[in-house]
Design a protein that fits this description.
- The protein is α/β, with parallel strands linked by helices.
- The chain has a single domain (16-167), classed as Glutaredoxin (3-Layer(aba) Sandwich), CATH 3.40.30.10.
- The chain contains 5 helices and 7 strands, in the order βββαβαβαββαα.
- The chain has helices at residues 48-61, 81-95, 111-118, 147-161, 164-167; strands at 16-20, 25-28, 36-42, 68-77, 105-109, 127-131, 137-142.
- It is globular and about 45 Å long.
- The chain starts with 15 loop residues before the first strand and ends with a helix.
């Protein structure tokens, strides 16, 4: 299965299967077709503040727009799913607002493979991927959100969603 690497932006996001905290099975990017989506992927819990630094301004900018969404994708080593999967998801549920359960998709997979195909060089960082409506990566970032990074991803998301022309009216 082909995936993106650190330097490739115009590639299709690799297929990742998981479950939302609502319990719904989700296959990325297939189940996001038709939506411009910013996906935050992390393999270590310590990256959560980085994810939140992107989530809040992105969701505030596009609140109420069903064509643009933010998804948080914690990737956890596959071997832990059988014994700790329920405990891990319960812990995540306890730490976030229930309104966000649908946008948190836990993926139990080979974390080394996921890091390789997504070009995640530093496992302590969160990585962000902005997908167009067909699941192609159009923008990539990592770490904490800065003003320039937020402005850039919002501008690209607006363009992909066809909102740029509307903003200028």
């Amino acid at each position: 299965m082909a995936g993106i690497s650190a330097g490739v932006i115009e590639a299709r996001f690799p297929l990742l299967s998981g479950h939302s905290l609502e319990g719904r099975k989700v296959i990325l990017p297939k189940d996001l077709k038709g939506v411009v989506a910013l996906i935050a992927v992390a393999v270590q819990r310590g990256a959560q503040p980085m994810v939140d630094s992107w989530r809040t301004p992105f969701e505030e900018e596009f609140a109420g727009d069903p064509g643009i969404a933010f998804y948080e994708v914690p990737v956890i080593e596959k071997e832990t799913e059988l014994f700790l999967g329920g405990v891990i998801n319960a812990g995540m549920k306890a730490g976030i607002d229930s309104a966000k359960y649908g946008s948190v998709i836990t993926v139990f997979a080979d974390t080394k493979w996921v890091r390789k195909v997504l070009g995640m060089d530093d496992p302590s960082r969160a990585y962000l991927y902005l997908l167009d409506r067909e699941g192609t990566v159009r923008w990539r970032g990592s770490g904490f959100a800065g003003k320039g990074g937020i402005e850039e991803v919002i501008a690209v998301a607006r363009r992909l969603a066809g909102l740029e022309a509307m903003k200028n009216l």
